[in-house]
Amino acid sequence: MTFPKEFLWGGATAANQCEGAYLEDGKGLSTADIMTAAAENSPRKITDGIIDGEYYPSHRAVDHYHRFKEDIALFAEMGFKTYRMSIAWSRIFPNGDDEVPNEAGLKHYDEVFDTCLQYGIEPIVTLSHFETPLGLLKYGSWENRKVIDYFLRYCETVFKRYKDKVKYWLTFNEINVLSTKPWMAAGVHSDDEQVRMTTAFHQLLASAKAVQMAHEIDQANQVGMMYNGHVAYPASSDPQDIQQTNDFMHQMLFYADIQCRGHYPAYKLKEFELKGIVLPVQDGDLEELKKGTVDFVSFSYYLTHVVGKDSPLSFTGLNGVKTGYKNPHLQSSQWGWAIDPAGLRYLCNVLYDRYELPLIVVENGLGAVDKVEEDGSIHDSYRIDYVRDHLIELKKAIDIDGIPVMGYTMWGPFDIISASTGEMKKRYGFIYVDVDNDGNGTFERRKKDSFYWYKRVIASNGEVLD
């Protein structure tokens, strides 16, 4: 079994989790910049502006803004074919609604993309990855239709500026996180489902319009949606457990249904009718959704859930989703996430059977506490085992199931702050970054054992996984 010849091997990050430099060169505040690190067993706080004495991990993160050349050179040493990253919208339009873009921000990403291309690394760029310009909150953020126009102004700016440098784009990172963490996804802090579904409609419409714009500006552009890879098994063969699992998947997949099929599914429209939820549809909106379907499906995959009738679903908590069940057949990470390599193959089948579009895994990795030995080495065999086992299952999806998979970008190739907790001790990278949970350290980069292993994997196009 082999990976395709043009398979895109690489890694993935988000600007707010790695760049730092949160107010440099004209950047404005984003929703991520007022999120503190989580206290023990508590979620991250959202503060009213910047409060003295609070620690905000995004403000310095791991200083990728100043060290991107060093980091990308390390990616090239591993043999990366692609780097999935995001543009910080508030670097380009500091307040979100500015008339003129910030040239310093545009120039920064010119340099990032030029560095990637210098090494033959293809950028995959997420337009909105868990950060909305804080200045847009005066409109109500994505609950307000005006924000669509501001987003499209930003899209047009970067599509034109980077026309010859970027051809793969993702609109909204893990758009279905709107159902679990609306602040992260859209800068909306509400449990009201009418508010969330209004917000979702505006993002879905914005995505559809952005897809069309990208194609008009450059026919070579390929635009994908990005699904937070929630997938579930029923707790038993009890028909009620099966139905509960189906309902769970509907809650997660309806965003992808719209972005891939171009219309709201019947099950969601009936749910809205029963709950009295009214979408803010204007003339022409439904046609825009039809015309703005995506070219491919990208997704994250970390874990699977077990769902059944005896535990109601809870879209809260540090992981965003709780189902009340633990899979007795699986081990868990240090953060309690079920480790299920076979679930990656299963999810590939779910997504391809449903949409028949090319897939790309743009996030997959193991968060773990790493130990630096006295000689500076980091022996992370657990990370190697995790990624290897998932790649074996991905290879099965390609060669046994016949699914067109474009690539695999491991999350994250160097240690970055955790989105869910703001921690640094929850490390994912092949490259160690000397920063602790309080933001202290030298920021020195250091290669882990997994760095050399992934280099061998890429050099062999996935043939050598030992």
From TrEMBL:
Q: Which residues form a coiled coil?
A: none
Tell me which PROSITE patterns the record gives. GLYCOSYL_HYDROL_F1_1, GLYCOSYL_HYDROL_F1_2
Q: Which UniProt keywords apply?
A: Glycosidase, Hydrolase
Q: Which Pfam families match?
A: Glyco_hydro_1
Task: Show the InterPro entries listed in the entry.
Answer: GH, GH_1_N_CS, Glyco_hydro_1, Glyco_hydro_1_AS
Q: Keyword Cytoplasm, does the record have it?
A: no
Q: Active-site residues?
A: 363 (nucleophile)
Per the record, the similarity remark reads: Belongs to the glycosyl hydrolase 1 family.
- The protein depicted here goes by the name Beta-glucosidase
Organism equals: Oceanobacillus neutriphilus
Gene name of the record: bglA
